[in-house]
Write a structure and sequence with these properties.
Layout (H helix, E strand, L loop, with lengths): L7 H26 L3 E2 L12 E2 L33 H28 L3 H4 L6 H13 L14 H24 L2 H6 L1 H6 L2 H29 L2 H10 L7 H28 L1 H20 L34 H8 L6 E6 L5 E5 H6 L3 E8 L5 E10 H6 L10 E9 L11 E7 H5 L3 E7 L2 E2 L9 E4 L11 E7 L12 H5 L9
Parallel strand pairs: 3-12
Antiparallel strand pairs: 1-2, 3-4, 5-6, 6-9, 7-8, 7-12, 9-10, 9-11
Helix pairs in contact: 1-2, 2-11, 4-5, 5-8, 8-9, 9-10
The chain binds the ligand Nc1nc2c(c(=O)[nH]1)N[C@H]1C(S)=C(S)[C@@H](COP(=O)(O)O)O[C@H]1N2 and molybdenum atom.
Ligand MTE binds next to strand 7.
Length: 506
Amino acid sequence: MDDPNFPLWLQATHLINFVLIGILLRSGWEMLTSLPRLWWRNDSKPGTEWLKFTRRELPQEEGVYTSLMDERSASPVFTLPGRKNIGLARHFHGLGVMLWMLNGIVYVALLFGTGLWRRIVPTEWSVFPEAWASLKIYAGLDTPGIEHFQPYDALQMLAYTGVLFVLAPLLIVTGLAMAPAVRSRFPRFVKLLGGHQGARSLHFIAMVLMTLFIVMHVGLVFLVHAEHNLPHMIFGVTDTARYAQAFTIAILTIVVVFASWIGLSYASLLDRPRTQKILVALTEPARRFGLGWMRPRMRDQTAYTEKDLSEFHWTNGLPPTQDESPEWLALRDGGWSDWRLEIGSTLDGSSVTVSLDDLKALPKTEYIAVHTCMQGWSATSRWTGVRLAEVLDLLGPRPEGARYVMITSHGLAQEMWDHRPREPFYTVLDLKMVAEADTILAYERNDRPLDIHLGAPLRLRVESNHGYKMVKWVRSVEWIRDYADYGDGRGGTREDGAMQAFNGVI
Ligand SMILES: Nc1nc2c(c(=O)[nH]1)N[C@H]1C(S)=C(S)[C@@H](COP(=O)(O)O)O[C@H]1N2
Ligand SMILES: [Mo]
């Protein structure tokens, strides 16, 4: 190789990558703690996990246990930000991914632009026998001679190429596949990866391999010819005389980066609503321009068929109890004959009520779709109902100035983030979400009236979003001017409580 030195851009992109990978791993682990189980089965049935990080045994019965109850609290030392904050973790993950991909693009562009790719991308088949020879040396707890590293040996070339062109793209592809925007627009692509659980499990496995690579990559710098490697890494040139200096700088850098990761966790827990606001502002442009164009199309809702229907459906949110809503219980006991949906406008005070039979008389929408909870579980069902837009039309044209629709439940939020008394579960949709053909008020699942625990007699379905938008036991739908005027002003119970983003497409 002509110039064995490391240019500054190589060092800079590596350092940035190190910081960002930490943010991605730590926020990823926080997400995993919110449902510490992995499946290949797409109904996420308890007892069928291939891996779990909890000793808790779950009942096999539906509707007695919510996924929120399975959430575990992690220390801010290990996760970002820790202490059951999946919403914030998801925003940090999004921000981390944006910056990591940007950094990766710069790195790959410069790698090819400068010709340095020849150092790491093998171009001869001999790389395989050479790598095997190196592996045998390492297996004997010995190290290959320095003459093998010019600057990299065959094993390194294979590992670097694999990480860069196989593992990193696999992480991106499986990560994207978990976004509702991608799932509802390109359902066949998600199916190809083994569905939501396949993508989630593969993402996890790729994460483990990436972590192993990083530990070995950094570890070997210190273990194999460190007197050459460390000055090379820190100063860009192999100057063995400056080994002690390089060693000190390397260790200090690692300590500072670890401290910053942990500091970031504690700092973001100080004022969670403020952290949410900053992170959502930083990530919303990417959410909008990256995924916002992927509007769902009804004709794609044919990817799933009868045989994809789930045997099990997780529950998040248990049916209203006597002290939560005696009204809903009385309506249930009356077989829903007195149940009415309130359709209103907070702008002009108008309202109408309709019965379940009125709703069933309206044009019917039916499709098979995959539900994903942002915590990680999924379930496939056939949903039958009436388009929300159609129901709103019963009130007349959209009132002047109405930009959002608020859907409120008979049930209360499972918990409030600041421990104030529980308030009714609600969500807010914007005009685009309302207009989607698969945004419906569903009254049947799998050709039977909705189960009590899944939202009887009427629940919201917004297939382009995660489950947290899909209010169960719906009581009212109302036009509103702005969601800033309701709850904590973030646009829904899970936005308020779990610091989610209003835009739930990812
Ligand atoms: N009323 C009410 N609706 C709710 C919730 C809730 O707690 N209460 N949880 C939401 C969340 S986070 C999810 S993932 C879905 C779960 O729907 P399921 O219980 O029918 O599976 O319901 C949504 N709708
Ligand atoms: Mo959820």
